[in-house]
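Human: My hope is that you can spare some time for a protein that puzzles me. I am handing you a single protein, as its sequence and its fold in token form. Could you go through the record with me and say what the backbone is doing? Take your time, and here it is.
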Amino acid sequence: MIRLPFIPETGKGYQLALAEALFKLGARPPVVRSVCHIGKKTAIRVYKAIHRQSPKKGMLPYDLFWILRSSVNNIHASIFLGLIHDLSQQQLPAVFNAEVFITAYELYCRVVAQNPQPSKLEAGVAQFILLDINRAWQLVGQWKASEMGLAICEKCHARHVVLNKMPKPYQQCPICDVWADKTGRRRWATVKPGQ
């Protein structure tokens, strides 16, 4: 387990340093405002100072069922939320905060960048990072609201993310409960033809 070398800090300078780290990871201003508890004007000013342009407008990624869209999405969410869970547990009391979010996302990026056999879905994105930081923030919101949780597969003992309100057949392991079609695309076992 990783020991976080963070010293609890308060104050505007500390929040701005966290905001800068998030913007460098690709976060959009609404995410930074939520995580760092800074104002809209301040977030936009920091964004412009880092990226030398105005932030992208439009809605943030939001898909309650993103982890069910493919087993590869589920694996990426499982890696990230597993890290969030483990790092939160190292804090006394167990808490989620900006440092945990940033550390978990940086570790997630390092882990997936080392994938020796990326799927077709992963191969289409830089460094095989399917989960951008803005969607990661959305997943953390679902996790904190108890809409999703971590389950252990009875076959392979892998820890994976499930949507808590979905029936058991849809709480599948992204490693065991998949099959590959003719094109090599991984599909959930529940959508296998002829079942």
Notes: Residues 66-191 form one domain. The radius of gyration is 18 Å.
